[in-house]
Amino acid sequence: HNLSILHLFDVKDLHMDDLRLTIGQCKCLETLVINECSLREDWEHLASLDRRKPISTSVRMMQLISFQSLPNQLVQFISLFMYLQVLEMDCCSLDLESLKSLLLQQPFLHTFRCPDWQHISAPNLATLQCWFRNCDLQLSKERLEFETDYKATLAVNLLAEYADFSTTLNIGVSG
Predict the structure, then answer these.
(1) Residue 70: strand, helix, or coil
(2) Is 96 helix (H, G, I), strand (E, B) or coil?
(3) Spatial CB neighbours of 61, under 8 Å, sequence gap ≥ 6
(4) Comparing C-alpha atoms, which of 71, 73, 62, 89 is closest to residue 39?
(5) Crossing angle of helices 96-104 and 71-79, rounded to 10°
(6) CB 50 within 8 A of CB 23
(7) Please, which residues have CB within 8 angstroms of residue 57's CB and are 6 or more apart in sequence?
(8) What is the model's pTM?
(9) Which of 1, 54, 146, 155 is placed for a possible disulfide with 82 were both Cys, Cβ 3.0 to 4.6 Å?
(10) Residue 113, SS3?
(11) Which tens digits make up the pLDDT trace of 61-102?
């Protein structure tokens, strides 16, 4: 399974085994986009495999768009991806402590983008910036900055330019 980019779209009621049998089998997966998907309430109950074992050690960039989960599920779900460098979410309902817990579990994370963090305030932002000095926290639409992917192949660049195709979704644009 040599996929480097995987988009999951409109997959409802995912459980741990689903994730291990799909994402877990893609050993070269670098970019994961999860769009309009949801986790089962008992998503780990059905798991026959070790729940603490990472799903992926290769995913470096993850986007969660319209992802439906309980707050504790979200923190646990993201912790199953060990080496994330970029995490993007269209919105986040986690409180300060839950978000801090999530970020602490991602030591390689250098960019966290979320244009709609529901608990944003000056004190909360200052606390996060103090705790995570090495992570670029883009927690409002005004702070979003996107890098150019210089590693993209000619085919990807042509598709992006002429067919409006992108390997990731632009979380800063309202639909």
Answers:
(1) coil
(2) helix
(3) 30, 31, 32, 84, 85, 86, 87, 88, 168
(4) 73
(5) 10
(6) no
(7) 82, 83
(8) 0.82
(9) 54
(10) strand
(11) 999 999 999 888 999 999 999 899 999 999 999 999 999 999
